[in-house]
Structure formats: structure tokens, C-alpha cells
Write a structure and sequence with these properties.
With about 280 residues, the protein is mainly β. The chain has one helix at about 245-260, and strands at about 20, 25-30, 35, 40-45, 50-55, 60-65, 65-70, 75-80, 90-100, 110-115, 120-125, 125-130, 145-150, 155-160, 165-175, 175-180, 195, 200-205, 210-215, 220-230, 235-240, 240-245, 280-284. It folds into two domains: about 25-120 and about 250-265, Sandwich (Jelly Rolls); about 120-180 and about 190-235, Jelly Rolls. About 5% of the residues lie in helices and about 40% in strands. It has a seven-stranded antiparallel sheet, with no helix packed on it. Strand 11 and strand 12 form a beta hairpin. The longest helix has 13 residues, at about 245-260. Mean pLDDT is about 80; it is low at about 1-30 and about 280-284. This is Pirin. InterPro entries: Pirin, Pirin_C_dom, Pirin_N_dom, RmlC-like_jellyroll, RmlC_Cupin_sf. Belongs to the pirin family.
Length: about 280
């Protein structure tokens, strides 16, 4: 796998206030891969590519625009390695960790890959993105999640409906956006805030929409990700790559991984092929 700084802020903010997060990290292969339990990951490749494999023999390459949904479930050991690009293109991507419902924490691991050409896209005046009434792909993750990638030109704007009570955030990859949120049943909008590159705006659960625009004076288009997901209303206890619901489950996960039991049997002695071609790359 490649390791780096997690996208976690030092402070928690309310509606429309940015979270400062890590700009980038150096990705380096860890020879033995990594064991995971209790969550799903959504990997989105923005440029370059990533080789991936796991202890069950699943292997492949994710390229620019591709998505991968991986369910760790009861246990998986896998490796991810940025590819080498002869043209010097950086490997840039995002990986979102999504909690599994308690009753699915110990389900069987699985993968769902979605190639760029399979992802619906729409173009509107002033912006483009995976929205604007285009039907989304369904049943790719156990926990309902919306993952929208927008590009908005200077002077452009969008109004995106979101399921009421869902958690939501916007993360700016390039440029800057003006963000406000509110309910479609209320004609008034909260004051907008400017969110710059590599910052995150986290929205409150009240309301059912967000409004985002780009200043007409902006020198470049804004490129950002909007993510929304269903809150599970359950305890979350996370230790490294293990995401469960209690301290006791964390301790059990560590024991199972070390002993090669209860889902980690194939992890014993497994070494990824990626480790044979160790490379470094910068990713977001």
C-alpha cells in the first residue's frame, strides 16, 4: 500500500467553515501490504494510476477517472502502489473511508471497479460534473454515498440537492469556491464563505441543498469533490486500519490479524507483488 498523512483536521467547524487538511503526501510502498477490517474504501484516481492487489489474488490497475469500491468486511490484506509514468505525470487520487453498518462489519470482502467511461457525466453552462439529473450508479457500497466531482468555470454556479440529515462536505482540488447552504423551503441563504485549494467545507445536517459558485474574477476554474453519506448512528472505534464499534473489537481485530484468524488466514506470509517494484509518488 502507500501511506501518507490522513485527511483529518485539527479542529471541527460548523457550516461553510473550511477545514485545513494536508496538501499532499509522499506515497511509499510498504512491503507486506496492509490488513483492514470493518470499513469500505472508495478510491478515485484523478491523474496517473495505481496498481492494486490483495491476498486473494485479485489484481488490477486503476487509471485516471476510475473508481474502486473495496469492502474490507471481516478482513482483507491488500496493497496499493502508484504506477510509474514515463511522461512525469503525478499520481493523484483520493480515498474515502466509509463505515460499514454494524451488522455488516464481518461480511465477506469484495471489490467493485467502475471505469471512467462507465461513470455518467453532464455538462452545463458554466460547469460540468457528475450531477445535473444524470442517474447515478447504485449498490456500489453498503452505506449510501454520493461522490460528485465538479468543474465550475469563473462566473459559474451550481445548486445541488442533498438528502436531508446526510453528512456532507466539499473538498477543493484546484481554484477556490464560494459556498453557502440552505433548504429549498427557505428563500434565504446563509452568507457564503470562500474555500480555497486543499481546504474542506463541512456542512451541517439541516437543510437539503448546497449552493456553490466561482467568482467571475477568478483566474482559473474550480475543481472540487462533493461527498454526502448516510449517518449510521453507531459507535465508531478506529485503530489504524481497523474500524469497528468497540475497544474489545479493536483488540480482537489486532489478535486475529497477528494470528491469521477469523478472516486473516490468507494474510500469513503474504507479500505483495507491488513490493518488488517499490516506487515513490506524490498524491493528494
Amino acid at each position: 500500500m502507500f501511506r501518507g498523512l490522513p485527511v483529518i483536521p485539527d479542529e471541527i467547524y460548523t457550516t461553510n467553515t473550511p477545514r485545513k487538511i494536508s496538501k499532499s503526501f509522499l506515497a511509499a510502498e510498504v512491503e507486506e501490504g496492509v490488513g483492514m477490517r470493518g470499513q469500505e474504501t472508495i478510491s478515485y484516481i484523478i491523474s496517473g494510476g495505481v496498481d492494486h492487489e490483495d491476498f486473494a489474488g485479485n489484481r488490477g490497475t486503476l487509471e485516471a477517472g476510475d473508481l474502486q469500491f473495496m469492502t474490507a468486511g471481516r478482513g482483507i490484506m491488500h496493497s496499493e502502489m502508484p504506477i510509474h509514468n514515463d511522461n512525469g505525470e503525478p499520481n493523484v487520487g483520493m480515498q474515502l473511508w466509509v463505515d460499514l453498518p454494524k451488522e455488516l462489519k464481518y461480511c465477506e470482502p469484495r471489490y467493485r471497479d467502475l471505469k471512467a467511461k462507465e461513470i455518467p457525466e453532464a455538462v452545463e453552462d458554466g460547469g460540468s460534473g457528475l450531477s445535473f439529473g444524470v442517474e447515478s450508479k447504485k449498490e456500489l457500497s453498503y452505506t449510501p454515498v454520493w461522490y460528485l466531482h465538479f468543474t465550475v468555470q469563473p462566473g459559474g454556479s451550481l445548486h445541488q440537492s442533498l438528502p436531508r440529515t446526510w453528512n456532507a462536505f466539499a473538498y477543493v482540488l484546484e481554484g477556490a469556491i464560494q459556498v453557502s447552504n440552505g433548504s429549498s423551503s427557505d428563500d434565504t441563504e446563509a452568507p457564503s464563505r470562500s474555500i480555497g485549494q486543499f481546504h474542506m467545507a463541512v456542512f451541517e445536517q439541516e437543510g437539503d441543498s448546497v449552493s456553490i459558485s466561482v467568482s467571475a474574477d477568478a483566474k482559473e476554474a474550480a475543481n472540487f469533490i462533493l461527498v454526502a453519506g448516510l449517518p449510521l448512528d453507531q459507535p465508531i472505534v478506529q485503530y489504524g486500519p481497523f474500524v469497528v464499534t468497540s475497544r474489545e473489537e479493536v483488540q480482537q481485530a489486532v489478535r486475529d490479524f497477528r494470528r491469521g484468524e477469523n478472516g486473516f488466514e490468507r494474510a500469513v506470509g503474504w507479500v505483495s507483488e507491488n513490493s518488488r517494484s517499490r516506487r515513490n509518488s506524490v498524491v493528494v
